[in-house]
Structure formats: C-alpha cells, structure tokens
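Key result, reporting period 2: structure in, sequence out.
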C-alpha cells in the first residue's frame, strides 16, 4: 500500500476514534472499516491477523457496552465541549503513556472543562464524578478498544 492510501486509512482510523466520543457516530465501525480496507489491500499474514483480532475485540466491546448501565447524558450536563476536552485528554494521555494513559487523560479532560466552567476544585470534581458514573465507563471501554486497534495498526505498518 502506498503512502497516500496509508494516510487515508490513518485518517479513517482517527475519525473513528473521534467518532467514539460523539453520540450517534459509529466510531468503532469506522475503525474496523479502516483496518478492513488496509488488510484487503495488504493481503499479508500480519494484516489478516490484525483484522481478525480487531474484529474480535471490537465485537466483545459492543457486547460489554450493552451490559453497562445506560448513558444519561442530559441529566448530568454533558456537552459537546466536554466531549471535546475528554477526547483530547484521552488522546494526549494515550500518546504520553501508551494505551493506559487514555483513562487518566479522559478524566483529566473532563476535569479541566468543568474547572474552567465552574471555577472551583470541589464543584469540578463533583461534576467529574457525576459524568463518569453516567457516561464514562461505556465511552472509555469503547475508546480504549479503538485506541488499542489503532496502536496495533501503527505498529504493524511500522514493522513492515
């Protein structure tokens, strides 16, 4: 696969990761479709292995999400701005401390957004706890799985 196509696959994967944070956008499926596109063009054993592994992981994540409590977005005041802060924090955390850094980055992004909005540490932390109870678990599970797939894809591409 040439460089422009790799760039486009990477763009689809990035849009998928960002899509996890936006309700109604099939972020997980965009990540899977990007890996599928890449594997169909590569046709190597590592590409097929990654596709099978990504498919299994993302399907398990979909089942796990159904088992988690339902999201109550409006009840706790989740906004698009907060989702942007949380996603940026998760992405930065993922880069600074690969894979596991996404969790504290996600929480830190929500805290920063609420601290700027509310002003005090106590109110911001109370808001973070409410948000994490309502939406954090299911979003984090899906986001972490997508980031793991993207990291595996990057590792496989760089290994070739």
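The corresponding designed sequence is given below.
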């Amino acid at each position: 696969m040439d460089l422009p196509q790799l760039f486009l696959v990477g763009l689809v994967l990035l849009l998928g990761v960002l899509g996890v944070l936006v309700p109604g956008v099939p972020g997980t499926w965009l990540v899977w479709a990007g890996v599928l596109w890449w594997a169909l063009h590569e046709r190597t054993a590592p590409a097929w292995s990654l596709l099978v592994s990504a498919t299994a992981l993302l399907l398990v994540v979909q089942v796990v999400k159904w088992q988690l409590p339902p999201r109550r977005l409006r009840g706790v005041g989740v906004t698009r701005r907060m989702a942007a802060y949380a996603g940026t924090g998760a992405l930065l955390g993922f880069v600074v401390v690969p894979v596991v850094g996404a969790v504290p980055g996600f929480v830190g992004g929500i805290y920063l957004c609420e601290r700027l909005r509310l002003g005090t540490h106590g109110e911001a932390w109370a808001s973070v706890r409410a948000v994490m109870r309502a939406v954090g678990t299911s979003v984090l599970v899906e986001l972490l799985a997508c980031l793991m797939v993207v990291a595996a894809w990057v590792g496989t591409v760089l290994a070739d």
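The chain has seven helices and no strands. Residues 117 and 146 are 29 Å apart (CA to CA). This case is discussed further under Risks and Mitigation.
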